[in-house]
Hints:
nine-stranded mixed sheet; 3 helices; seven-stranded antiparallel sheet; mainly beta
Amino acid sequence: MLTALGALAGASLVGAAPAGAAGNGTRIAPGVLYTEFDVRAAEGPTHAHVLTVDLRDPRVRLDLLHPGAVAARAPVSRLAEVRGAVAAVNGDFFNISEVQHPGVQATGASVGPAIAHGRAVKAAVPDGQRFGPAVPPGTSTRDVVGVGIDRRARLDGLTLEGSVTTPDEWLPLGGLNQYALPVGSVGAFTSAWGSASRVRATCGTDTDRAAPCSTHTYEVTVRGGRVVSVADTPGSGPIAEGTTVLVGRETGARQLRKLSPGRSVTVRHRLEAAVSGVPYRFALGGYPVLRDGQPLPGLDDRTSAVRTAVGIADGGRRVLLLAVDGAPEYRTGLTVAEVAETLRELGSADAFSLDGGGSSTLVARLPGESGISVRNHPTEGVERPVPNGIGVFVGP
């Protein structure tokens, strides 16, 4: 256990782990180190758990963990065990509750975009529909952290590019497997969505998550390039492979009403990186807190909490996965500003905040252990089921 001494100028931390701390941990696999250390933060001591992943080792890779459906949740340890990961942390914020919309069930789906194994899983909900704490100015639900096909980790934004095309009409696609669609848009739901009701996608507005559900909706099911059924309200249940369900609200609903059974329809969609242009091998949402070694302006430096975050060092070749311990003696946690400073002290040039609180979980299979174990203490005493996470994999 490493304890930092001394203050950091310009930050609210009293102390943070030194830059070399992550190199002194337990080697749990080639290119993967696990480290614990104490941080003396503004609200009191906290305990941090860090996985350091060296992507320069060709045997090591990171990928998205998820339960097999966007609208589903499972504990991080189970997600890691099923996929054979040696370690993992929880991922994005998600649609955890629906108290503002009586009778509408929460989907459990994540807020931001997601890419797994190089394939687009989902796009981002509108900014006003996000769950989670306030984010720094200039950030959005489209922000992601991930690893490109060049094996370098990076921060970027992912924008949905998609369309619905008929012989005589072209419609822009406003969503992909999202729990909330932009007002007036058409969204696509595929087999990756799962079986949860699609009604939530038509509730709230782009600026007000609690706004009433739309009263003007329409749903069209497309299979084999043709419309096979239509409905006035969004449905539920599993979507078969090769089938796409289009859900429209307001203007989007009026456009979909023109499509009758038997009509030819082509649906296309992809996620495009806004800055790098390098396709992601995997990516998931959250929000950036550190860019080019500098904390983002407006980071919260008052609210301390248990948190999970990702740091990127060495030009994207080294990734740090950090989770704060939720044991009672450490539960005051860190502010977002302290998270950014801690990851900078560990050598990160960029950093990204993931879901925290009861979701914060770091798991690993340590040397001599036969299976995955939870290394931090979840704040609720047990793991909270989550929609996705970052898995660490080692193989030939």
